[in-house]
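Running co-folding for glycyl-adenosine-5'-phosphate.
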Amino acid sequence: MPMPTGSALMEKLVALCKRRGFVFQSSEIYGGLNGFWDYGPLGVELKNNLRDAWWDAMVRHPPIGPDGQELEIVGLDCSIISHPRVWEASGHVGGFADPMQTCRQCKKLVRADHVAELLAEAAWVTALLETCEAGPLPGTWIPRRDALRRWAEGKGRRLAPGLALVRYPAEVAGSLNEEPLDVQTLLRALASESPMVADAELPCPFCGGDLTEARQFNLMFETYVGAVRDEEAKAYLRPETAQGMFYNFKNVLDSTRVKVPFGICQVGRSFRNEVTPRNFIFRSREFEQMELEFFVHPEEATQWYEFWRAERFRWWESMGLAGRNLRLREHEPDELAHYARDAGGCCDVEYAFPFSGEKGFTELEGIAYRSNFDLIQHQQASGVKLDYFDQERNERYVPHVIEPAAGLTRGLLAVLCEAYTVDETRPSPELMRFAPRLAPIKAGIFPLVNKEGMPEIAERIYRDVRRAVGPAQLDVKQSIGKRYARMDEAGTPYCITVDGQTLADQTVTVRDRDTGAQERIAADRVVAYLLERVR
Ligand code: GAP
């Protein structure tokens, strides 16, 4: 089996994630719920390891700052539902919306800015383009009236029943000029009952039908607090963890000894009623974020922005993501929020996900210079002063903020994509090459045969490893090859085998997941050996 790419890779990965208990569709026995996922026994360990690595790199052992001192960063864990005025002040009630279109034929909703991308992946578009002749320029197609009409009256009925060409084959095919068109112009022409209108909408990516004009759709999930369900009781599930750090700014200042520059960070669940959740756990409706708000003097903001850009890129590399699959992309001026446009900037750490398409990379983490927008907003809305007295400068000011905001569950997907490997030389070719510190199981321990005292020795080693190193698995069933294959798929970096020689000289073999190389070490060195490699 060769190493798959693109959607074939995603299919294999999703299948492995389910088979081995990394990620399940939420409430699958009821048909699942779009945009919601459950993390299985291996997935929850992997996710917790990524989360703990982030917390460790932020709070427990923060980076060394430009002055050679460790940064000051403290943690928080805020409630998911907060006072609804938080979201008015932050701008989410008024402005946290995506443009949404509805299909008049199949009634599905689609995010207006995702339509072109979804069409590029749609099976019906691929099938339709096969009926056209390639044009003189790359990416252009000559629509042949007869071929398109035949397609519309045959395959098209099943693949794209909503497309105007399928509903009115004679009229739409008849109105076409057999001239080269790019894909989007061609699709607009085939989606329109009347001869080509310059600003015709693209068709529905799911059925080819007509899409309504885009309407703004607020992404926050609403709920009610208390027994009465009226406007007064309305509240929101948080769409980001960041605001908790802003509305607790004064609490943190008053309860700790932190001094600017310092950071507050949090890991937790966020909720967005995404119009088109897609690409497995990449864009879901319930997900986890790892966010840092780093408070600085306004004059030092640019320097700290540069610092965190480099630091966050380096951290993702240290999680095993290869440098070539990562890039830092500065936002274009028209992508920037107004507060970032006026002062600093915003960039994304992007990863080459298999579905990144032509762009090649998609967002993993955003690093934004937010000026003092959020603190000022909350100060004005609450009437509570959120400024800071800087003793060294003898100056009072509202600190500016650099915000590295990462997705934990999206990060997990990057780690899964990076780890997925096909090695055709192995009897069972799929393996997950997780960085050992992230691996959900640190070691597999096998007695070669289930007799002659080997199970007892293996069990002793297993208990020691679990106690001192972390999750381990004792496996006594089937051939050693099959046991290796099971551990390879789970991404276990080391397998320890107790065999006949162990009985004679108290040594065991250690097999390395990535190279398959084996070495013999003393059985009483197993814990130390693993500790050196998996922490
Ligand atoms: N406080 C800023 C903020 O929330 P964001 O770019 O909207 O910024 C930060 O989100 C990160 O959260 C993203 O880079 C992404 O990794 C993750 N994220 C955002 N929406 C997501 C979704 N629907 N599903 C999974 N992860 C998401």
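Result summary
Residues 297 and 393 are 10 Å apart (CA to CA).
Residues 240, 242, 272, 274, 283-284, 287, 289, 291, 363-366, 403, 405-407, 409-410 surround glycyl-adenosine-5'-phosphate (CB under 6 Å).
Job closed.
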